[in-house]
């Protein structure tokens, strides 16, 4: 039987009478790239925020590796290995590319809050940081300020920083949003490359990307699961076509 790393059962979120997520059941298999798609307003980002505990569910349960994390805090599930990115690029702009990745690695030293320590104590992390930058084709930018990177490479830096935290499950929220074609192709290839040996759940609007790299797709509409399956199954579903294109 497939090994589910993440399960959501009957997940619901109400906002003052408006139901943004309505009884979602979701199962993400270990080692897969699972895409969460749907038209605007379908509840994808709200669902993501529930899974990563940036929002508390009104009802339902969330299991990670068989453990109930429904009431856990975001920091707790991050320590368990559930790490997410956001729609908006989030890097430390005035730090170098290398320093950004070292921040993600710092947890391994147990010095995350030792602000009085010498900066030289972080040098031990440089070799691993450079390995991670090589994985995302950023090693030649190691000494550049993050603010000087093009947008697509900033997204690659976010992925490197996420990898530094040794995620068992990576959640990527619209990783190619706002990118040109060249950056989209680069980041798509990067996601496929770093997925080796990992599990990825991503929200993505670009159907070409979803078709090319996803093992399984869940389609949301008005906060509920409309369809689920492989791309060939989902893309030919009349309900999905109507949800995206209209009747």
Report mean pLDDT, rounded to a whole number: 86
Order of helices and strands: EEEHEEHEHHHEHEHEEHH
Distance between the termini: 38 Å
Radius of gyration: 19 Å
Shape field:
globular
Please report which band the strand proportion falls in: under 5%, 5-15%, 15-25%, 25-35%, 35-45% or over 45%: 25-35%
Count of DSSP E strands?
A: 10
Main β-sheet: number of strands, strand sense, barrel status? 6 strands, mixed
- CATH homologous superfamily caption: P-loop containing nucleotide triphosphate hydrolases
Task: Walk me through what this model shows.
- There is one protein chain.
- The chain is 33% helix and 25% strand.
- It is an alpha/beta fold.
- Strands 6-7-8-3-9-10 form a six-stranded mixed sheet, sandwiched between helices. A four-stranded antiparallel sheet has the order 2-1-4-5, covered by helices on one side.
- A hairpin with a 2-residue loop joins strand 4 (59-64) and strand 5.
- Helix 3 (97-105) runs parallel beside helix 5 (151-164).
- It is globular and about 50 Å long.
- The termini are far apart.
- The mean pLDDT is 86.
